[in-house]
Amino acid sequence: MQEYDIRLPAACGEILQILENAGFSGYCVGGCVRDSLLGRVPHDWDVATDALPGDVLRLFPENIAYTQGMRHGTVALRLQGQTVEVTTFRRDGAYSDRRRPDSVTFTRDLREDLARRDFTVNAMAYRPKDGLHDPFGGLSDLAAKTLRAVGDPAQRFSEDALRLLRAVRFSAELGFSVEAETRRAMEQERDGLREIAVERVFEELRRTVAAPHAAEALRCAPTVLFAAVPELEALWNVPQNSIYHIYDVWEHTLHALDDAPQDATVRLAVLFHDVGKKAAHSVGEDGRDHFYGHALPGVEITGRALTRLRAPNALRAEVVELVRLHDMAFPPKPVKLRRLLAKLGYETVFRLLAVSRADSAAHAPAYVAPRLRALDETERAVRALQAENICLTLDALAVGGKDLMELGFIGPEIGKALNTLLSEVVDGNLPNERETLLRRAKRLRERLQR
Ligand code: ATP
Ligand code: MG
Fold first, then answer.
1. Ligand 1 contact via 46 beta carbon (within 6 Å)
2. Which H, E and C letters describe 99-156, residue by residue?
3. Is 118 in the pocket of ligand 1 (CB under 6 A)?
4. The ligand 1 atom nearest the CA atom of 46
5. Model confidence over 109-167: pLDDT tens digits?
């Protein structure tokens, strides 16, 4: 038996032991085996077993975490501070909706259970007693950094089109390339993505863009991306005959992704930032391509795509704002910067700088350094304002609604007056000092009474 450096968490060891003692077999399986062999920290541990869900309930009465997956064979256990999903070996029935098997059949055969899994590197099982079970060559694919479908790739993708997006996501996370026949099958089966729940499409997209090898994974699979998110097809085939650019819009976007920090919000904004260019394109008298005002159609397309994909509202709003502002002039005038901070907050402004840095770094070399210097200067200015702790919100204002009521303001006048004071403070026209603000409020009140 060959030794592998797979260290099971104590909870898994205990689960395998209890199953074993009761005459069943249990294995760690899937992503946790893959990640352990790669020396990565698995983010969840799954156990597969020939015990039926009812047996698992009986053997672990004190440890049941949740049972929603029972019909598909899954019982989640909570032991020693860890949640582990224990799933009965199964064989999946036909996939008539291309999403979920119509039926699952439990089996006592580990190999059958591994055969239903998506990629060879995800189809390995391990237990300390007899080591690794790898009937589909997952270990050698791991060594070759290859994603290969288990069985007939076209059939596997037609059963469940989510697997196409999982392939792109794993290649983005692990830096693996997709084996040629698997790749061809993805191309062929990509229309199946239309039937996948939009929430799942978005979740895979979010994880893909935030991964270390996102750009390379997307470069290899543009048609899959566009089948999943048709709004992004506007990035394709848009040449940029311009002194500012050396790439077309698609390549520019990928280079910018590579340069962006691995933050899902920033990366999504980078992915969408130039999606309005196709719509805004014109050719100048100089024969060059121009994209005046491309952020605006970009905002519309990005908002539409993220709404359709049911992205969380706050995330969508922030990404849209970043697309709207990605091409603004840096450094902004001091008052404009203060207004921007009041509107967006520090976190979003730092993200805007990250988007703009990534965008800038993917421009023609002559334009990169000056643009990055302007962004550095802006960042220093933001940090100085942050250190100064300038007032940017109503909460931080030195007077409140009660003060204004005492001065005789009523109803909606109160909020209006507070906002007037805040914007004068944000603009730097008034200090955030109680006495000064009260004096100013009195004058606003007098004007109301006139
Ligand atoms: P990660 O947890 O990092 O996303 P993972 O490989 O563990 O990666 P999970 O979604 O946790 O992925 O699924 C666990 C295992 O279940 C996978 O390793 C794979 O064997 C199997 N699996 C998950 N989704 C599918 C699917 N759509 N088709 C076939 N097998 C799947
Ligand atoms: Mg997992």
1. yes
2. CCCCCEEECCCHHHHHHCCCEHHHCCEEECCCEEECCCCHHHHHHCCEECECCCHHHH
3. yes
4. 14
5. 999 999 999 999 999 999 999 999 999 999 999 999 999 999 999 999 999 999 999 99
